Structure formats: structure tokens, C-alpha cells
């Protein structure tokens, strides 16, 4: 073989190898889920004055005087934030850095309406329950209508406690309690607001039986009765500082999960009537749900977790309790970030958890009415949101290599989401699955309204449920029942036992 022929033969082989390892072919960027869907927040500031801005989701931006240079002395700062999985999905902000899969702790965008530039660094603090020390700050770069994340930089975290609250919670509380739902014990959201005396709460956590038998706290006795006189474990080794650290963690988680305060109580007679009526509404709705093939047990503690979304596409929750991998955490309330440029920024790290394994994931679509479909993989527990593309057969979809191979955490709740648009019509499909080494998933795609799309994406905010899309019987009746149940839930919040202690207990 001649040298030139040998060279071109080698080049051809290298091209084939590269193609086999390259990402699957992506369609044009989605026009349905884009950063334009995210709310812009505006702040008018003076450029020569030290200013601190706080966004709706709690991001704090410290702007020293003279750090922004503009023609005038006033500018309007524009901020977008995507700290929740829903906002990331709605904004089409995938967690990819080139070909690497990322897991995210939140994204934000900052700029000004007027022409300006940053001449001194801005300090940004992004809320974190506890900062994951493996996270880095990525900068967003627009490529073909998508945001890619580049130039990862190390992060700092603000030390605000001398204890590891997550470890305390996992070691002492998690076996019986969750923040936003009842397990063996009551939900812990808003716990301090439900005790008449905080000192009694601290003593109850340390030794509940001592408080109950002391007779000094009627609420503790009522709570004990509600949970069938089942004693809670005692924790004599917990110091006041440990318990305060836990309570602070409960407060932050309550705020992060959006659990609202309990309203004022009503009279006992009115409570009894309202509860009886609500039980009838629930029974009727449950009968409708069973007719639709759903096996749903409603939470009789009347908390927000019971709600099942009903629309022309019904989203039914299936509660799955799983042990999650716990990444390394540092005692921190905020990621501390220094930025020198406007644009998108992302707190992410490479998806390299201990449970990640080589796998194969192939998606087959059916019922498609749009020429272009954007296919996404979502893993809620790690806030992974990855766009896929066509595999080498040009029919099926994958999310990394053109043969469907991809490294994924195993045995995790995950979703495939398909979104298309044609002539103003939106097409959508959603399929729940558990990750495993080899999977082929069939995806049904149907036309939906914009509101239906938003509601299905919104439901992915729930951390303790999974969903399947299914047609609904008794649609109008169930919508009316939902409305009436929500109205009555507001009336009975805060009522369980004779002493009318608030819902959920301590």
C-alpha cells in the first residue's frame, strides 16, 4: 500500500472510531422550553453605591460601588434564576458540559438592561442547604440555541454552623421523619411554629416521655395520643446546640420545599363537620381514581402532598422510598461565588457518583405529529437534565454515544421527556422508569396545551413521587372535586385531635 493510501485509510478508521464515541445527533434547539420562559427580575441601582440585591429564590448579589461601569450612574440589573428542577426544565437549561453529564445545584443569569461592563468582581451567594464540596462554577456559552457549560472554577462556601445538620438528621431523625410528609412520625416542616413553647420542643426531642409524663405540655400529650401512644426514641446525647442546628435545618428545608404556614384554627364543632365533609369528598375522588386504575392512598393528615394533578393528561404519583447516595457536604448556607462577566452561571459537577455505571438507554417514539422532537433525560435526585439525539439508525434516540451507551447512576427514579412544536401546536410525552444497565423505552407523544405542558413539568418538582401520563375518566367531575377538596383543606388545616394541635405534629 502506498504511503498516501495508508494515511487516508488510517484517517478513515479514526473518523469511524470518533463517530462511534461522539454524541448522538441533536435536532434544532427546542422553541418550547427556552430561557425566555424564566421570569426576569429587575433591580435599579446606583453604580457608585455599595448595593446588595436579593432575588425571589434567595440569591444575594453584592455589587460594590464602582464595580459596574456604564454611561450613566444608574443601571437596571436583570437576574434570572433556575434553582429548581422545574425552572431548569422550563428554561431548557440542560446539565451538559460538552459531552460530560453534570448534576446541578442551581443556575442563574445576571446582566443589565443598559450597556455596561463589570470592572470589579461581583460577589454572589446562592442558597444551599449544605454546600456540596465537589461542585464547581461553570460559565454558560450559547451554542446553536443551547447553553453549554464551560470553564469550571472552584467554589467557596460560607461556614455558618459548627455541626453537620444533615448527618444529625440522617443519624437521628430520617428513619421516622421527613420534612414535608408524614412517615412513622409527623412531618417536620414548620415544627417550631406548632409548639406553644420552644423549650418544651427541645426537651421533647431529647426525652419525649419525660415531657409527656410531666404534665406541663398538653400539646405533647395530644401528639402522643395521635400517634397511638407510640413513644419516640430518646436522644440524651444531643446538646442544645445540636438540636438548634437540627431546627435550623428544618427551617431551611421547609422554605426550600415551599411548605406554607398553617392558618388559624376554627371551633371544634365546625372542625368536626368540615372533616366529615372532606372525608366524603376524598372517598368519592378515590373511587374515581380507582376506576382510572390508580391505587392511591390519600394522606389523611391533610397536608399538601396529597394533591394529585388532574388534566386531560392525568399525572398519578407513586411514592417510592429509596436510599440516596449522600455526597460530601460542608457546613454552609450559601455557595460564595465571584463573577467577572455577565451571562449564565451554573453550580455543577461531573456526574461521577459511586453508583454510576456503564449502561445502554434507547428510546423509541410513537404517535408523533411533529417533524422535530427534542428528547430529554431527567434524573431528579441529582438534578440531571440532558438532551438526547438520534442514534446511528436515525430513528431511535439516545443521550450520549450513537449506539445508546451512557454512564448513569443505577436504580434511580428517572424520566424521559419528549417535546415538539409545529405550527403553534405542542407535542409532549413523559415516561417514568428506574435506571438499569440495559433499557429500551417506548415513548408515546401526543398534542397538549401550553398549560398541560407546564403542569407536567411542574410535577417533577416533587421529590418523593414519580409520575406516569395516562388518560383520565371523569375529568370534569374530578376537576370540580379537586377544587372543593382544596377549599376544604384550607378550612381543616391545623385540626387533628381534641386539643386542636396543628397538622403533621411535632
From TrEMBL:
Residues 443-498 form a coiled coil. Keywords: Coiled coil, Heme, Iron, Metal-binding, Signal. Pfam families: Cytochrom_C. GO terms for molecular function: electron transfer activity; heme binding; metal ion binding. Residues 1-25 form the signal peptide. Residues 160-254 form the Cytochrome c domain. The keyword Magnesium does not apply. This is Cytochrome c551/c552.
Amino acid at each position: 500500500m502506498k504511503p498516501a493510501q495508508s494515511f487516508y485509510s488510517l484517517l478513515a478508521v479514526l473518523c469511524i472510531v470518533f463517530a462511534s464515541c461522539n454524541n448522538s445527533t441533536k435536532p434544532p434547539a427546542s422553541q418550547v422550553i427556552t430561557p425566555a420562559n424564566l421570569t426576569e427580575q429587575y433591580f435599579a441601582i446606583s453604580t457608585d453605591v455599595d448595593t446588595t440585591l436579593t432575588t425571589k429564590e434567595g440569591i444575594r448579589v453584592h455589587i460594590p460601588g464602582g464595580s459596574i461601569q456604564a454611561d450613566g450612574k444608574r443601571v437596571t440589573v436583570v437576574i434570572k434564576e433556575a434553582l429548581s428542577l422545574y425552572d431548569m426544565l422550563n428554561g431548557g437549561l440542560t446539565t451538559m458540559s460538552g459531552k460530560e453529564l453534570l448534576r446541578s445545584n442551581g443556575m442563574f443569569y445576571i446582566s443589565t438592561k443598559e450597556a455596561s461592563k463589570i470592572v470589579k468582581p461581583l460577589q454572589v451567594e446562592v442558597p444551599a442547604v449544605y454546600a456540596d464540596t465537589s461542585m464547581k462554577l461553570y460559565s454558560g456559552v450559547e451554542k446553536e440555541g443551547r447553553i453549554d457549560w464551560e470553564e469550571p472554577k472552584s467554589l467557596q462556601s460560607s461556614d455558618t454552623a459548627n455541626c453537620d445538620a444533615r448527618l444529625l438528621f440522617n443519624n437521628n431523625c430520617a428513619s421516622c421523619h421527613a420534612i414535608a410528609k408524614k412517615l412513622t412520625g409527623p412531618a417536620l416542616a414548620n415544627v417550631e411554629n406548632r409548639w406553644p413553647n420552644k423549650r418544651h420542643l427541645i426537651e421533647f426531642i431529647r426525652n419525649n416521655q419525660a415531657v409527656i409524663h410531666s404534665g406541663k405540655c398538653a400539646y405533647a400529650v395530644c401528639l402522643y395520643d395521635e400517634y397511638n401512644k407510640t413513644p419516640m426514641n430518646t436522644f440524651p446525647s444531643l446538646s442544645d446546640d445540636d438540636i438548634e442546628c437540627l431546627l435550623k435545618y428544618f427551617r431551611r428545608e421547609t422554605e426550600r420545599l415551599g411548605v406554607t404556614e398553617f392558618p388559624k384554627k376554627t371551633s371544634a364543632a365546625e372542625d368536626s363537620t368540615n372533616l366529615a365533609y372532606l372525608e366524603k369528598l376524598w372517598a368519592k375522588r378515590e373511587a374515581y381514581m380507582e376506576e382510572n386504575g390508580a391505587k392511591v392512598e390519600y394522606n389523611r393528615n391533610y397536608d399538601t402532598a396529597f394533591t394529585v394533578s388532574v388534566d386531560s393528561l392525568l399525572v398519578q404519583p407513586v411514592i417510592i422510598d429509596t436510599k440516596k447516595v449522600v455526597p460530601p457536604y460542608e457546613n454552609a448556607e450559601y455557595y460564595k461565588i465571584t463573577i467577572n462577566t455577565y451571562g449564565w452561571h451554573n453550580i455543577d459537577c461531573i456526574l461521577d457518583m459511586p453508583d454510576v455505571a456503564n449502561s445502554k438507554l434507547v428510546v423509541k417514539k410513537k404517535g408523533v405529529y411533529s417533524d422535530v422532537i427534542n428528547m430529554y433525560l431527567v434524573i431528579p435526585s441529582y438534578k440531571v437534565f440532558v438532551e438526547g439525539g438520534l442514534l446511528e439508525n436515525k430513528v431511535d434516540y439516545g443521550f450520549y454515544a450513537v449506539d445508546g451507551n451512557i454512564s448513569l447512576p443505577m436504580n434511580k427514579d428517572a424520566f424521559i421527556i419528549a417535546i415538539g412544536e409545529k405550527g403553534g401546536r405542542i407535542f409532549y410525552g413523559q415516561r417514568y422508569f428506574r435506571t438499569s444497565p440495559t433499557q429500551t423505552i417506548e415513548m408515546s407523544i401526543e398534542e397538549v396545551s401550553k398549560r398541560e405542558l407546564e403542569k407536567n413539568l411542574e410535577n417533577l418538582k416533587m421529590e418523593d413521587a414519580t409520575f406516569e401520563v395516562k388518560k383520565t375518566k371523569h375529568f370534569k367531575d374530578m376537576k370540580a372535586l379537586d377544587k372543593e377538596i382544596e377549599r376544604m383543606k384550607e378550612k381543616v388545616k391545623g385540626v387533628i385531635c381534641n386539643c386542636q394541635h396543628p397538622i403533621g405534629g411535632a
